[in-house]
Backbone:
């Protein structure tokens, strides 16, 4: 499987060249404002002393790590601030592949394509577990697929692309599967602020030495371009305790450190942003989900209403989600989505729509008209 | 060999805990102001639209790449903007090791320890070529050491730690050695704005398909913490043309993209900073070099007056540059340097001093007193 971005590009370029107005629901960039504290952090940083323009600690600014550690209720030493969740997942997956026997990465199908692309690039083999009809991984299916060949299991909750959310019990089951197979559960929780079900549980709650949780501020603060994320590794001194040191070394020898202006701005935003900001963002998405799912109903589409995240996958009658049909939808309906085949086999007939545009209502009407 | 930062930390922590005032000449962070255009870039970015807070292109903001390409006189497609020179060197070294036969990385001794640390981490073998009495790599010695086992040759000019500067002819010889041995010359040119000899030549002038030039704005704009660097790869379609695509993929799967606030600020600074800023920075360093080398003469030390960069290495009579002696220098003279042994064997008796402090005069007096 190819990794995501070039495929995104193909679709986005097609939409940009279209002869008509197109509502872009292709990529997952928030379209709303970051909290004002983030801008304040940038403003103050612009006037900082030259010493503050020099290397932050390789593992991240201390105050930022402390804020993260307090929020996640873990020791600060376990936190590495990374260049977005991308690097956090990279450190976790390479660490798991190096540390555990076996060269297999277990992934959901449909999958966020970066996981599969990274596994392929690293020379690992991939095994896919199809989600059930609700778009969810069944722990029993994961348990059946896992083996001594498995060194990494990646779970993403709230999920891109299906919108599934796993609760603490499900996460504990995934962690137990990792433990039973001497493997690492990498739990990518970047959409954790976008749980509409109230059931989201972090993999950290399993308190397992076989878990690395990854996250970023890209979605929760609407700053995908800042590249500030983090990984929480098992504690040093315990089982799998050397994963942390190895990740610190890899991070240092790859990137030296993360970008300080971005870390400063995020640190300020975390200290000054009220819970209301996050609640507003959730409500905005929930309104969009209501309207979009209503239109999907009108269009006679099959879909799972997302429990979390930014995306809705849908299958339209006699209109499989191939690149060809997605292009037709751009040209004829004026709505851009991502073909399901970009995410694997099990939902190759579906189309993923990202609800990060203020024009969700318009897109919903256009789809209802086109399929109605 | 251990990589640099933990060893830096050991010395910096010792200096911080000392009972007396210590002039810190341990690490290479510029102590002067960035150009005003950089701050203007940050100020404007703080007020930008939300879309400007989202992912930049993975290979870097287009306007920044174009500015770099124009300055280096290369096609813009050859430029990947990286998370500092650290990631640029990482992409180049991993690319060379993947692409060429052999698993050996050829390095100067003394060496910037990140090169050796990265080679070790990647499972490569390292071979060291001692510099000559002037602190320079003799191309003949490099040619004698290179073999079919060599896949990467790393050269750093102006050099950390010796201050050597290689001209275009020497660079062409290093490139020819890489070509003759089917290997990659990685030319780290981060101190290129700090050439006091007027002889610096970029490896790009050799116009060889076996060259990757790496650089960053950390030193030239005094922003080591921003993490904006770049690598220039051989053109696609020519010999070794697939190095570029492989590096783009590795960059995307490791970091997704670099940090946009930092890239925006650098882009503005490049467009608005006059040559006088860079000339002032050079003059500041040259004054410091004059004074410091004068004191080294008084102290009876052996040293090479640097042709470029931030550092002076010196050997004092009966005072080899061990960690023990460096600690004594901190306690007794109030001057912190880096032990030569941190950089390899050939100058293990020497001490490296970074001239990035306004207190160079004071340090010079203290050293002259201590050894006088």
Residues:
């Amino acid at each position: 499987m190819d990794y995501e971005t070039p495929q995104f590009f193909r679709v986005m370029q097609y939409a940009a060249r279209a002869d008509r107005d197109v509502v872009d629901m292709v990529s997952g960039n928030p379209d709303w404002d970051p909290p004002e504290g983030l801008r304040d952090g940038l403003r103050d940083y612009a006037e900082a002393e030259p010493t503050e323009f020099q290397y932050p600690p390789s593992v991240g600014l201390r105050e930022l790590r402390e804020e993260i550690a307090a929020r996640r209720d873990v020791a600060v030493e376990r936190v590495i601030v990374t260049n977005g969740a991308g690097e956090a997942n990279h450190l976790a997956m390479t660490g798991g592949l190096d540390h555990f026997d076996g060269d297999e990465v277990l992934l959901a199908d449909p999958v966020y394509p970066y996981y599969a692309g990274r596994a392929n690039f690293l020379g690992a083999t991939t095994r896919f577990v199809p989600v059930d009809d609700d778009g969810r991984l069944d722990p029993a299916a994961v348990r059946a697929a896992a083996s001594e060949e498995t060194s990494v299991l990646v779970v993403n909750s709230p999920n891109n692309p299906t919108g599934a959310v796993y609760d603490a019990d499900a996460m504990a089951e995934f962690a137990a599967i990792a433990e039973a197979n001497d493997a690492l559960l990498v739990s990518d929780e970047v959409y954790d602020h976008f749980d509409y079900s109230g059931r989201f549980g972090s993999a950290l709650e399993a308190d397992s030495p076989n878990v690395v949780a990854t996250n970023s501020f890209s979605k929760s603060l609407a700053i995908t371009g800042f590249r500030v994320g983090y990984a929480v590794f098992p504690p040093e001194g315990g089982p799998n305790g050397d994963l942390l040191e190895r990740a610190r070394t890899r991070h240092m020898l790859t990137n030296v450190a993360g970008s300080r202006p971005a870390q400063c701005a995020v640190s300020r935003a975390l200290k000054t942003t009220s819970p209301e900001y996050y609640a507003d963002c959730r409500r905005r998405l929930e309104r969009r989900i209501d309207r979009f799912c209503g239109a999907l109903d009108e269009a006679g589409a099959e879909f799972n209403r997302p429990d979390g995240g930014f995306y809705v996958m849908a299958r339209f009658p006699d209109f499989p989600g191939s690149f060809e049909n997605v292009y037709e939808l751009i040209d004829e309906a004026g709505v851009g989505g991502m073909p399901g085949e970009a995410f694997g086999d099990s939902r190759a007939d579906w189309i993923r729509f990202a609800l990060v545009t203020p024009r969700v209502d318009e897109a919903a009407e256009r789809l209802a008209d086109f399929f109605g």
Observations:
- The mean pLDDT of chain A is 96.
- DSSP finds twelve helices and 13 strands in chain A.
- Chain A touches chain B through 52 residues (CB under 8 Å).
